[in-house]
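hey can u run this one w/ magnesium ion bound, need the structure tokens asap thx
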Amino acid sequence: MIAAIVPAAGAGVRMEADRPKQFRPLGDRPLLVHTLQRLSDSPLIETVVVVVPADWVAKARSELIEPYGLAKVGAVVAGGAERQDSVAAGLEALGPEVDLVVVHDGVRPFVTEAMIADVVEAARAAGAAVAAIPVAETVKRVADGAVVETVSRDGLYRVQTPQAFRREVLAEALERARAEGVVATDEAALVERFGRPVRVVAGSAVNLKVTSPEDWSLAESILSSLGRSASASKADREGTERMSLRVGMGYDVHRFASGRPLILGGVVVPSDRGLEGHSDADVLVHAVCDALLGAAGAGDIGRHFPDTDPTYAGANSLDLLREVGAIVARRGFRPLNIDVTVVLQEPKLKDFLPAMEANIAETLGIDPTLVNVKATTTEGLGFVGQGEGVAAYAAATIEAT
Ligand code: MG
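ok here u go:
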């Protein structure tokens, strides 16, 4: 289960206003409400915790959450002295069922669903991920009003939120930072400081952090241009819906090895040898995973389940397929049909094909008639014909939900 934590506990002294800037109106509603609505609209996020200044806890409920019907906001908690204290307070308010946390600034009202989906997916795979954009301007180090040097911008990125973390990764970083007295401007900096990988996904210049009066004017113009494009984008959406059928293909090969079971389509096929591999080496299910990921434009099985990750040693490939189904769903699609050809010289698979189809269909939650598995030999030709291994080809169609 995925939760969002929204640190919005800043006192907003920079804006010199009667109230902290996150509670001031942008267009027809408070800045923070825009942000909370974007997060609430994400089908990935099930609950949202907002962290506000202590004297705003009650007002946030009565002025923001209730009037705007922000039903996904489960808790409003008081922030701490530093940003990371606020995020830690948000983390404490989450139930044990939350295993992945998206942290997003309360003053970034233009976050998109694609950014959320990308950080979530990258954090599931790597533990932590941030949205960022490459530095486009020339960067100089300045002291006493004069340039000291021009800094190479190669590999320099401006980091934004959303940032996503496996819960235990974020909890560990916050706990160690507290114990060691380390303060950072974002949570990813703590995670990387403690030696954990942080993956980078594409942010956007539109994903503005509204801090200065100039940012405020820019945010107003972005908001009104989004309003103007709303009717056009509805037409675009309908156009996309007519083109919502997508197809992907997958191909995989595994080598025969003695002393292992032969697992194909989740069925243990009687054989004197099985297939070599990091997981259970179910070559047929791997091809199906790649076809589905390909159709969804979500990379391949190696990207999501690296064979260098001990988590997947001996993994049941149907569990990987289940996760692939979830990735496809998170991208807004459902499987329509799947067709597989498994290529091997022996043993004969005819009697096992219906069980393989049923396993794949059940794992994806679709009707068994939508899955077709067939087997062929290569008439003794090539590596398959020589009995060195098994190959599988799969095609999948998916449609927008
Ligand atoms: Mg494989």
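The chain is about 35% helix and 25% strand. anyway lmk if its weird
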